[in-house]
């Protein structure tokens, strides 16, 4: 379950929007701007995910789309299942692409 965004973080998001120009959410809505987040599960993409949740809830921006790419380099299936379960709670559309690892011969 995704907790509500704390007021301190919401205030920070509003401060960021002011620095970017307060009219941005209105422009995004007017232009039907689409958002695609390549989500890794790390800190940076997680705060962006919360920011998009905030924008969706407060300004009714278009529903963001999330994308996750598994390179198949490491065996992290349990972590990927947790990540998928987590992002499902946001009710944004998401795609998980699993790429099989490739071995290259160096000459």
Automatic annotation (TrEMBL):
Gene3D superfamilies on file: HUPs (3.40.50.620)
SUPFAM superfamilies assigned: Adenine nucleotide alpha hydrolases-like (SSF52402)
Top-level taxon of the source organism: Bacteria
Name the UniProt record assigns to this protein: Arginosuccinate synthase
């Amino acid at each position: 379950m995704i907790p509500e965004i704390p007021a301190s973080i919401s205030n920070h998001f509003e401060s960021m929007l002011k620095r970017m120009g307060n009219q941005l959410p209105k422009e995004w809505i007017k232009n039907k701007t689409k958002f695609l987040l390549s989500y890794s599960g790390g800190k940076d993409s997680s705060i962006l995910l919360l920011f998009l949740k905030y924008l969706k809830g407060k300004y009714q921006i278009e529903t963001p789309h999330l994308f996750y790419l598994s390179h198949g380099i490491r065996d992290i299936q349990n972590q990927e299942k947790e990540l998928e379960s987590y992002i499902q709670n946001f009710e944004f559309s998401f795609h998980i692409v699993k790429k099989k690892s490739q071995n290259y011969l160096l000459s």
